[in-house]
Amino acid sequence: MLPQQFLNNLEKPQGKNPGFGTFPFTVILIGLEFLMDREFSCPCTPGLNMTLIIFIFLGPALLALTVLMFIRRPCRRKSQNSAELFLFCLIPPSLWMFLLLFEGKYVACGLAHWEGDYILDEKLQVKWCKPTGVMGTKVNATDLLELTEKITFFSRLSALALLSVLCISVLIVVICSDCKSRTLEQQDEPTRQTSLSGSEVEAH
């Protein structure tokens, strides 16, 4: 009885604002990224680096999206609200991706294809996998550090691009939704006036 009642409560519309519910997840993900940023250490092992970063990127993002989709159920709403609800469900996962990309070090860790020790370069203030052991004659530590810097730069650039796309998408959906609602209200207004006029005539 209680589980069924719990599911029914979740399926009810959670407020009039389609963005309702995204704010708590956004705050939680920001806090999680802050904590992870302090404790993160790249394993600096080829293969394992990429696997770890993929799970870091997708795990919390998919969890937030799954819970929001379960709560909001955009496909069960009216067709004019489905796209808007779905877009707002994508905000927390997209923000999580933005935070990780903007840090830069996560992508740099995932693309590190050499073994080493994860340290902070005091001069450049960049965390990277400092190579250890025997390296090839054509590649040295300086080249790998420069590669890490480039990866970090392009990671942050892609984060800003993602944020721009998200903001533009939200603006387009909100504007289109408001304009469509306004058009429907204007179309219904003559009908209301006609109904009121008919009621006044019958009253007289």
Name a few traits of the molecule.
transmembrane; disordered N terminus; 72% helix; two-stranded antiparallel sheet; 7 helices; 2 strands; mainly alpha; transmembrane helix; 204 residues; membrane; monoatomic cation channel activity; ion channel
What does this structure look like?
There is one protein chain. A hairpin with a 4-residue loop joins β1 (116-121) and β2. The protein has helices at 2-11, 22-39, 48-72, 79-89, 91-103, 105-110, 141-203; strands at residues 116-121, 126-131. α2 packs parallel to α5 (91-103) and α5 (91-103) runs antiparallel to α7 (141-203). The radius of gyration is 25 Å and the shape is elongated. It has one domain. It has a two-stranded antiparallel sheet. The chain is mainly alpha-helical and 204 residues long. It starts with a helix and ends with a helix. The model is unreliable at 1-16 (pLDDT under 50). The chain contains seven helices and two strands; from the N terminus they run ααααααββα. Helix content is 72%, strand content 6%. Keywords: Ion channel, Ion transport, Membrane, Transmembrane, Transmembrane helix, Transport.
H and E order: HHHHHHEEH
Note poorly predicted spans: 1-16
Strand percentage: 5-15%
What oligomeric state do the depicted chains represent? single chain
Helix content: over 70%
Assign an overall shape: elongated
Strand arrangement within the widest β-sheet reads 1-2
Mean pLDDT across residues = 78
Q: Describe the biggest sheet?
A: 2 strands, antiparallel
Query: What integer value in Å does the Rg equal?
Result: 25 Å
Measured distance between first and last alpha carbons: 56 Å
Structural class: mainly alpha
**Whole-number tally of structural domains:** 1
Number of helices: 7
- Number of strand elements: 2
